[in-house]
Amino acid sequence: EALKVTFQAGASTLLFKGNNVGNDKGIQVNGPSVASQFLENEFETPATFTGSNGAFLDINGTSPLHAVDTMICRNSFQIVNSITADCIRVNYADRTYITGNRFGRGATTSVDVQVTANATDTMVLTNIHPFGTAALPALMVADAGTRTVFAGLPVCHKEVVDIFDRHVYLHCADQVYDWLIEDPKQLRCLTGS
To answer: How far is CA 135 from CA 62, 115, 120, in A?
Structure first.
């Protein structure tokens, strides 16, 4: 790995900012990590890339030593399109916050953000996903986590909602679109005003 981090109990706040990283193994953050921040980096892969658990940035806590409160913001992920590799993997992690990134994903089954069943309260907010295929939503976030929030599109299409197959919490500026929910009367809207 270009960087493999394991925290001592009680230590916190790794700040990884403004780097250009290209390697075969990716970056792995192990638990117990607290408040790691990956900000404004360029992550690039060669054609020989295998990654850390198949991802460039692998937030990989353990049970019971989770990675908590990780921030991944304003990075550029450039995964060579001839390989299968995910940009970010979230595993044994709580409250991971992912926003403002540009994802250039690899081939075939590669996804931008892989959230495993061991992740809780992951927030994947607005990012740049420059791919216009019909399978786009399923390739943006592969979610098996608990209480994952995905607000990755300015307009949330029905296909995005369908991939979660559980409760979906929506914040709509002005309306609930009729194509989004089969029976809008069953949706309870909460407002802050």
So the answer is: 31, 18, 25
Q: Helix or strand or coil: residue 162?
A: helix
Answer whether 97's CB lies under 8 Å from 123's CB.
yes
Whether 106 contacts 77, CB under 8 Å: no
Tokens 């909602």, located at residue: 161
Mean pLDDT lowest for which of 4-13, 51-60, 184-193?
184-193
3-state secondary structure of 9: coil
For the whole prediction, is pTM greater than 0.90? no
Q: Which two three-digit tokens encode residue 144? A: 């098996």
Provide the strand spans (E) within the chain: 3-6, 15-17, 20-22, 27-30, 33-34, 37-39, 42-44, 55-60, 67-68, 71-73, 76-78, 86-91, 93-94, 97-99, 102-104, 113-115, 123-124, 141-143, 149-150
